[in-house]
């Protein structure tokens, strides 16, 4: 297809933490594509009301994480390892994203990330309900969808586990990320309880994230943690038995760009949390594909589940999908969808994905360049079904975020 006469290379900008590795990896991909360096817009400038966008820019919104001052402005505390304050963080962050959208629109710039999508992605209760209503397989949950019930503390968690016959659940902060505040909780009758978590509590009762996964074995300790987390909002999901690889539980992070699954990494762990920063390790993707096919399942169908999840967020170029393989490697469910789930350095694209030889950032830049080359513009990035992001967003059912 010949380029449109009006096509031109995109002028990119990225909202992020300029010194952060995420912005650096994106800039590397921009340069590798032969484009001028993206103009960096600091989250500090956004939060201070000083962000400026230029006419015709294509704007990528990246994570505000790993900057103590940004975290202080969003969360309201001085220690980024603290768990509390996630509801305040969510309210201020989504407000800041809306401000980015307003300023970009006023300048004539276009976003690659939809503010409504981001608001949904950062509330696990709403995100779970969106996925479930779209027919994406997800773990059962009593805290999402039309019949969602609030969690005010430990008494509510115990009641919901009993009413819904869920002896094993994950309890997650509604607005958390990177397993912050997450508990893998098991019960076996009155007084018999065990929770696996990375949350630690100091002598003053404050909660902190730790890089050490530990176990709580008394109901009093678990109740104290849940009661402290509950004011920021909690989400409960059934704990699904997962497949294993070489004796370690396994799941996958699958990156979907412009509607297509382009990258995948296997995460394995001896604990229920497979996050790499909590001691998880990368597994063997070829072994996973072989196990899926040997079970009578389909690797392409597994990736299609991730693409269906991404389809729920039509105004956002890239998401990271946490794919949970059931025991036996034949069935899959989606645990979470992450707005900033593309930080997988040195990982190149899946065979047949169109992103071979590109990392996750390179795949996104290539999608933007292709849209500009074809004269569609950034909002006209075409997904696998042939529709553009703009078309899909117009046709997408709106589910209000708080």
Strand residues, percent: 15-25%
H-E order: EHEHEHHEHHHEEEEHEEEEEHHEEHH
The largest sheet is: 6 strands, antiparallel
Tell me the total number of β-strands.
Answer: 15
Task: Label the overall shape.
Answer: globular
Percentage of residues assigned to helices: 25-40%
Distance between the termini: 43 Å
Q: What radius of gyration results from the CA coordinates?
A: 21 Å
Look at the helices and sheets and give the structural class.
alpha+beta
Low-confidence stretches: 1-6, 390-402
Q: Mean pLDDT across all residues, rounded?
A: 89
Number of helices: 12
What's the short story on this structure?
With 402 residues, the protein is of the alpha+beta class. The protein has twelve helices and 15 strands.
Characterization of this structure:
The strands form three sheets. Strands 10, 11, 12, 13, 14 and 15 form a six-stranded antiparallel beta sheet that branches. The protein has a five-stranded antiparallel beta sheet with strand order 8-7-6-5-9. Strand 14 (318-325) and strand 15 form a beta hairpin. Helix 1 packs across helix 11 (360-373). The protein is of the alpha+beta class. The chain has twelve helices and 15 strands. The chain has helices at 21-32, 43-47, 68-75, 86-107, 115-121, 124-133, 154-163, 219-229, 285-294, 299-311, 360-373, 389-395; strands at 11-16, 39-42, 57-61, 110-111, 168-173, 183-187, 193-201, 207-216, 234-238, 244-245, 248-257, 260-269, 281-282, 318-325, 332-338. The longest helix is centred in the N-terminal third of the chain and has 22 residues, at 86-107. Helix content is 32%, strand content 23%. The radius of gyration is 21 Å and the shape is globular.
